[in-house]
Amino acid sequence: MKRIKEIYEQYKNYSLDLIMYGFFLLFILFLFIFFA
């Protein structure tokens, strides 16, 4: 059970990083289109 919890924590952190990275890319893309 402890092992599953560790994997879940790692997955949660990874997905959070992925979401933040996605928003960052969208923001840069928006700025690029806006100033083009």
UniProtKB/TrEMBL annotation:
Q: What is this protein called?
A: Uncharacterized protein
Membrane-spanning segments:
18-35
Could you tell me the superkingdom of the organism this chain comes from?
Bacteria
**What keywords are annotated for this sequence in UniProt?**
Membrane, Transmembrane, Transmembrane helix
**Highest lineage ranks of the organism?**
Bacteria, Pseudomonadati, Bacteroidota, Cytophagia, Cytophagales
